[in-house]
Sequence to fold (224 residues):
Amino acid sequence: MRACSTTLSPRQPSVVIADDSTVAREGLAAIIRQDLGYTVCGLATDERTMRELTEKHHPDLLVVEPFLGHHDGIFLLKELAARFRRGRILAVSRQPEEIYAERALRAGASGYWMKTSTREELIRALDTVLAGELYVSPRIALRAVHEIVDRRATHPKVPNLTDRELHVFSLIGAGFGTTRIAQELGISPKTVETYHEHIKLKLGYVDAGALHQGAREWFGCTQR
Fold:
């Protein structure tokens, strides 16, 4: 176990990893340390150790297999989110994301990464969550977006948006950042930022923070 430094630069977030699989636990730690240069405070094999490490180190990110032992993974995430308010939670699991990804985010996790996915996608998930955004695989996020776009709008001013603005607004609500939206739509990040400004103006949001919050709330309403 490597102790966290008391002063961490913005480029060195602190991480606690909890997984009852030795291969997964040590593999995650290796990627986080070697590829990203983040500080791994400790590795937990069970819920008790995980709690002790998070209370001791107050890490920026908890990377956890929610289904530790025979635990109800969603209940565990809800409990962790209530106790671990100052950090972010990335759930990593073999359980199918079609069933559990949305449930994990609703429970308080900031992201859900499948262990069958790639190393590159793990790195993207870690960076996305630590940037304050939500992460699910592009496939799951886009499926949710398509469902939203096909539904009747629940925001009173959403009908004022063009089709492309609505698509961008949906992607923001699904947790996509500017770069990922640009990649998905095949446009430049600057063009995405222009759409942000148009949406803010049409929907009455005072700044980017209000836009993102409003998009997430709207996204949540459409998923009920």
Observations:
- The chain has a mean pLDDT of 84.
- The CA atoms of residues 182 and 188 lie 5 Å apart.
- DSSP finds ten helices and five strands in the chain.
